[in-house]
Amino acid sequence: MKFKLSLSSLILLAMFAGIGVGLFFGEMVGWMEWVGTGVILLMQMTILPYVTVSLISGIGRLEGKAAKLLFSQAGIVMLIIWGMALVGILVLPLAFPEVTTASFFSTSVITSPPPVNYYDLYIPANPFKSLAIGAIPAVVIFSIALGISFINMEGREPVIAFMDVVGKGLSRVTNFMVKTLPVGVFASAAGAAGTLTVDEFASLQVFLVAYALLCLALSLWLFPAMVAAITPFSYREVMSLSRDSLITAFATGNIFIVLPVLIEGSKKLFAEKNLTRADTDGNLDVLLPIAFTFPNAGKLTVIFFVLFCGWFTGKDVSITAYPMLAMSGLLSLFGSVHAAIPFMLNSLQLPSDLYQLFLVSSFITGKFNSLVAVMHLLIFGLLTTALIQKQWLVTTRDLLKAGGMVLAGLVLMIVSARIISSVIISESGNTAELLGNMRVVNEVSTEIQDQYPDLSTASAPAANLQSIIQRGVLRVGYLPNNAPFTYFNQQNKLVGLDISLINTFAQELGVEIELIPYDPKRLDITLNQGHIDIAISGIAMDATLMGKMNFTDPILQLHLALVAKDYRLKDFSTVQKLREAGELKIAMVGQEKLAERIQAARPDITLFQLTNYQAYFEQPKEIYDALLISAEAGYAWSMLYPDYGVILPEGTDYEFPMAFATARGNYSMLVYLNSWITLKKTEGLIEQEYEFWILGKGAKEDRPRWSVIRDYLGWVN
């Protein structure tokens, strides 16, 4: 007898072989993702037409009373499945170990994700457009509407028969394309395994472990157990029916391609149990496609990522916020996951840039939530059809047994995730080390002074550009503790965005640098007496100082924010909460004009001028409620002091320019600096420095993806 592997076995072998190839060759096989994507797209080509004809024929053959019963019972079952999934999602954060962390600033903090066009998504004004753009809800709504119009209509039989024939033809095409699936799975797995870096994976270990356990518990334990408890179908029968579809969905991350298999398998299961009625097949043809109109339980599991983000940033989502998160998450997931996650992060005042972590992990999470989605579709069809046919077998004993199994599954899931997470997580202050290890690349010969200049006696007049070139030394005023613009790193070197820019400026000017600290309250005197030629360190342009010294053209636009202890951030999340907070003590450094405006608008706020930002973070007691600072600098400081976080109160959008400063009459230096800044903006240097020092891109050394062929065998460099 000749041995032949089943399709699911071939897919599993292809997936593991692809992972092996990816680990062996690394980034060299990244291009194979294109092949995998192409195969998956070919698999999808029949799905929307199949959904359309199945819905039209399935609903169209119904009688009026049967249709009403079908839709009412389906709603009850959908709510039960959603409720069970949400319970598992919302209790799983109990598995998170205690940890404190922070992140670089991100532009997503100040920008909103593009809005979802719900009209295109849900209203089939042009059904052909909906089909073309893959707007599944709109296609389903159109198909349901057309199918309902056929109910009780005379002469509908030829149309229904035609739709049945088209559906069978589409199923044959799908069955043919499934034969190419192992090739696509192999290519996708190889490309992903070859490009996902070890560091990216390590930063997501806690989330991935907990998420995988959540999806496995729902798809392999809780959902099948629920069906076995209240229907004639056993746990073994449900798992046997779903096995190939689960494996296919896990390998491909795609649930569309198993829809015909689930429908036909469900029909077969009812027939084998002698539970088939006249409308059983028609109900199943309708129910599973209808399920695509609503968020499936697999989609709901991404809500757990938002809870993970709260833990990851040290801003745990409060239990009181769970109802709002569940409701907003459910509604937003009627649209795209890629729009829903930023929306949920924003609604909970969590950094939207954490969405990038979800994208990095999407290859893995897509596999696991596909398991839940497939099981959701299957049990939705089985439970609803059995309910309509009055085949639910609900007894007190069965309910207690099912409740015990659900509770045991949840406890086992939480305990397992907690143990594994505690082993793999390490609280080592990585963010502070990352900021502390950043360095200036193009460094010129530099002398750093640590003594403030004596302002009691005037120095020589401010040196013009020619004098500086002849002298061979550019005297630059700096603030020692003003991350990320000027600060001392772990090697005790003065680094930062401004230091990097001024090094490039001095290098092109052909001079060395002497760095001299200054008192920000007396900066104009320090400049005008000639103690320094240029002042740097993230200086905010201030109208009250423009008559006392010169500012260059803006280098960056910064965004005003508040920094406070993590547990206080929610008190400052909106303008309304700021008003309700009563008397506040806010610390700030400089920006006298802004201080005047705030004091005039809010006399109940007491402002305290500090000499430097470090004085706020190292206050012996919590004297100040918050620190007024740029969001860009605030995120850098929160990396050094992870107990603090940054908040941009909703309803505020205040920007201010950052510049260098020169002496009041030193116009030759001012003109040259302005031209230089314009040139560097055009060349992209300032944007490059912004991405490095502010956004943290490249702060960690990029290394080629680990691979056997490079790192173990040494066959390639």
TrEMBL record:
SUPFAM superfamilies: Periplasmic binding protein-like II, Proton glutamate symport protein. It comes from the Bacteria. This is Cation:dicarboxylase symporter family transporter. It is found in: Membrane. Pfam families: SBP_bac_3, SDF. Belongs to the bacterial solute-binding protein 3 family. It is a multi-pass membrane protein. The chain crosses the membrane at residues 7-25, 31-57, 69-96, 131-152, 173-196, 208-233, 245-263, 286-312, 324-348, 368-388, 400-420. Keywords: Membrane, Signal, Transmembrane, Transmembrane helix, Transport. PANTHER family: AMINO-ACID-BINDING PROTEIN YXEM-RELATED (PTHR35936:SF19), MEMBRANE-BOUND LYTIC MUREIN TRANSGLYCOSYLASE F (PTHR35936). Residues 473-697 form the Solute-binding protein family 3/N-terminal domain.
